[in-house]
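Duplicate of #3305? Posting structure anyway:
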C-alpha cells in the first residue's frame, strides 16, 4: 500500500507532500517534498491507494443558502442565521464541531478564516482529481480523506500544539515531537529525511497526514454515524484515528 499525505496551503511554496510505502510490519518514507503544485498532487494521488489532505474539502451546508439569499435580496435565508448561534452554523461544519467535542481542538473556520484560501485551492484540486481519476466522496469513503494532523497527534498521545512556526521554541518542540513519533512508531523508516522533518512543520504535517491516510484505509478512524452521514457527504468529514500508531503497521505494542 502507498499513502499520500498533503499539507495544503494557499501558496505552493508552503504545500508539502509525503508518500509512505507500507510493507510487512512497517512503512518507509518514499517521497517528501515542499513547494508542491496542483499537478504534482494529482500525479501522486494517482499513484497512491489513499490520500489524506490537511484542508477542508467542503463548506458548511448553511453557507451557500445564506450567500445566495444575500445576493438575491431574499431576507429570510439571511435572517435564518441572525445572532451568534446562527453565524456559528455558517462558520463551522458538523465535523468541526465533532472534532472539538472529541479532542478539545477547534479547527479553523473554512468560511470565516484564512483557511478559506487553501480550501478554494482544495476545491480546484478535487475537480482536477475528478477529471483524471473520478470524483472522490467528501466523507472519505473513496481514495481521498480530510485529515487534521493536530487531532491525529492528540489521538495518538503526542503533543499537538506549539510546534508550528520558525521561532527557536517552536523548532525545539518540533524536533522533540519528531523524536517522540519515532519512539512511538519504531517501525517507521524516515529514510534519512529526519533533518527536513525537524526543520519544516509543513513537511511534518504531511507525514502525519500520510499516517492518518493509512488509518483511513484500514478502517481505523472514526466514521460519521447515521445522524452525521448526510452532512459529511457534502461538507466533508475529518478522520480521527480510532486506535494507536502500532495498529497502522500491523505490529501491536
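Output from current build:
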Amino acid at each position: 500500500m502507498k499513502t499520500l499525505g498533503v499539507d495544503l496551503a494557499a501558496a505552493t511554496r508552503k504545500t508539502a507532500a509525503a508518500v509512505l510505502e507500507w510493507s510487512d510490519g512497517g512503512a518507509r518514507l518514499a517521497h517528501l517534498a515542499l513547494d508542491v503544485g496542483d499537478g504534482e498532487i494529482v500525479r501522486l494521488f494517482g499513484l497512491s491507494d489513499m490520500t489524506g489532505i490537511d484542508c477542508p474539502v467542503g463548506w458548511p451546508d448553511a453557507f451557500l443558502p445564506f450567500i445566495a439569499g444575500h445576493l438575491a435580496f431574499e431576507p429570510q435565508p439571511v435572517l435564518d442565521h441572525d445572532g451568534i448561534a446562527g453565524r456559528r452554523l455558517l462558520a463551522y461544519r458538523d465535523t468541526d464541531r465533532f472534532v472539538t467535542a472529541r479532542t478539545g481542538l477547534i479547527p479553523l473556520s473554512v468560511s470565516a478564516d484564512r483557511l478559506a484560501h487553501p480550501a478554494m485551492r482544495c476545491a480546484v484540486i478535487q475537480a482536477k482529481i475528478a477529471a483524471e481519476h473520478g470524483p472522490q466522496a467528501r466523507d472519505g469513503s473513496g481514495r481521498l480523506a480530510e485529515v487534521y494532523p493536530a487531532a491525529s497527534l492528540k489521538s495518538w498521545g503526542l503533543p499537538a500544539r506549539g510546534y508550528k512556526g520558525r521561532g527557536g521554541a517552536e523548532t525545539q518542540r518540533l524536533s522533540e515531537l519528531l523524536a517522540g513519533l519515532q519512539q512511538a512508531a519504531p517501525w517507521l523508516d524516515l529514510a534519512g529525511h529526519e533533518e527536513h522533518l525537524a526543520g519544516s512543520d509543513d513537511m511534518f504535517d504531511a507525514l502525519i497526514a500520510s499516517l492518518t491516510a493509512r488509518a483511513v484505509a484500514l478502517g481505523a478512524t472514526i466514521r460519521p454515524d447515521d445522524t452525521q452521514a448526510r452532512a459529511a457527504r457534502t461538507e466533508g468529514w475529518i478522520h480521527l484515528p480510532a486506535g494507536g500508531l502500532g495498529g497502522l503497521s500491523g505490529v501491536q505494542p
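Confirmed duplicate; merging threads. The two ends are 21 Å apart (CA to CA). Strands lie at 2-7, 16-23, 26-34, 50-54, 144-146, 188-189.
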